[in-house]
Task: inverse folding
C-alpha cells in the first residue's frame, strides 16, 4: 500500500503593517523640546522667588557686601587684562583705516564709542560669568550636595533668602562696577597705542575723545551690565541651588552656568543695544 503524496506547506501569512514607530516618532522628537520648556518654566519660577525674597525682610547685608567684594577682587585683574589689549587693537586697526582718509584725529572717537557701548560691557560680563558666576554655582552646588542648604531650611531659615539673594545681588552690583574699570582700561589701551606706539598727538586724541560719544553711551553701558549681572547671578544660582549627582553634578552646574549665561546675555546685548542706541546720532 503506497504512502499518500506529501502536501505542500501552506504559504506564510504576510506580516501585518505596524504603525507604532511612525506614531511614536513625533512624540520622541518632541520630548527634548518639552524638557527645555519645562526647564525654562522652572527657571522663571526660581527667578520670581529670588525677586520676591530680595524685597522682603530680613536683609542679609553682611553676606551681600562680602560676596560683592570677593567677586570684584577676583574679576578685577582679568577684566583689566582683557579690555586693555582689545582697546589697543581697536586703535591699531582704526588708525590704519582712518589713515586712508586723513582722518586720524577721529580715532579716539571710534575707540570711545566702541569701548563704552560694546567692548567693555560684553567682555567684562563674559569674564564675570566665567569667574564670578562659576564660583557662585560651585559654592551653592557644594552646599546642596553636602546638605547645608537642607540644614538651614530645617532650622526654618529660607535657603533662597540667605544663600541665593546675596549672591545674585552681588553679581548684579559687581558687574557695572567692573564695567567702569574695563572702560577706563580700554580707553587707556587705545591711548597707549595711538600716542605712545604710533606717535599721534595726545592733545588731539583727548580733544576728540568725546566728539561722538554721549552721556547715554556711559549710562547705556551701566544699564546693560546691570542686566547682564542679574542674568549671570540668576543662572548661576539656579544651576548651583538645584545641583545633583555629587561632585560631577557640581561640575555640570559650573559648566552650564558659563555656557548659558554667555548665550543669554549676548542675546540680551543685541536687544538692549537696539533699544538704547538704535536712534543715537553723532
Result:
Amino acid at each position: 500500500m503506497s504512502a499518500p503524496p506529501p502536501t505542500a506547506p501552506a504559504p506564510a501569512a504576510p506580516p501585518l503593517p505596524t504603525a507604532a514607530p511612525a506614531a511614536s516618532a513625533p512624540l520622541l522628537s518632541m520630548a527634548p523640546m518639552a524638557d527645555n520648556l519645562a526647564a525654562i518654566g522652572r527657571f522663571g519660577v526660581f527667578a520670581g522667588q529670588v525677586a520676591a525674597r530680595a524685597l522682603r525682610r530680613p536683609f542679609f547685608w553682611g553676606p551681600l557686601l562680602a560676596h560683592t567684594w570677593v567677586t570684584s577682587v577676583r574679576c578685577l585683574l582679568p577684566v583689566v587684562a582683557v579690555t586693555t589689549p582689545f582697546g589697543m587693537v581697536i586703535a591699531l586697526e582704526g588708525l590704519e583705516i582712518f589713515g586712508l582718509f586723513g582722518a586720524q584725529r577721529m580715532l579716539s572717537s571710534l575707540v570711545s564709542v566702541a569701548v563704552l557701548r560694546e567692548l567693555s560691557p560684553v567682555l567684562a560680563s563674559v569674564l564675570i560669568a566665567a569667574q564670578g558666576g562659576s564660583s557662585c554655582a560651585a559654592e551653592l552646588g557644594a552646599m546642596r550636595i553636602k546638605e547645608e542648604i537642607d540644614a538651614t531650611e530645617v532650622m526654618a531659615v529660607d535657603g533662597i533668602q540667605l544663600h541665593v539673594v546675596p549672591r545674585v545681588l552681588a553679581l548684579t552690583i559687581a558687574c557695572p562696577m567692573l564695567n567702569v574699570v574695563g572702560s577706563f582700561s580700554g580707553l587707556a589701551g587705545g591711548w597707549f597705542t595711538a600716542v605712545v606706539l604710533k606717535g599721534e598727538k595726545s592733545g588731539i586724541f583727548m580733544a576728540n575723545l568725546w566728539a561722538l560719544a554721549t552721556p547715554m553711551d556711559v549710562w547705556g553701558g551701566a544699564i546693560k551690565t546691570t542686566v547682564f549681572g542679574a542674568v549671570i547671578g540668576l543662572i548661576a544660582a539656579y544651576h548651583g541651588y538645584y545641583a545633583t549627582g555629587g561632585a560631577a553634578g557640581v561640575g555640570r552646574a559650573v559648566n552650564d552656568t558659563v555656557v548659558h549665561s554667555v548665550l543669554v546675555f549676548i542675546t540680551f546685548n543685541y536687544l538692549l543695544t537696539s533699544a538704547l542706541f538704535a536712534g543715537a546720532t553723532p
About this structure: Residues 84-275 form one domain. The radius of gyration is 29 Å. Helices lie at 20-54, 61-101, 107-145, 148-154, 159-197, 202-207, 215-241, 246-277. Residues 37 and 61 are 35 Å apart (CA to CA).
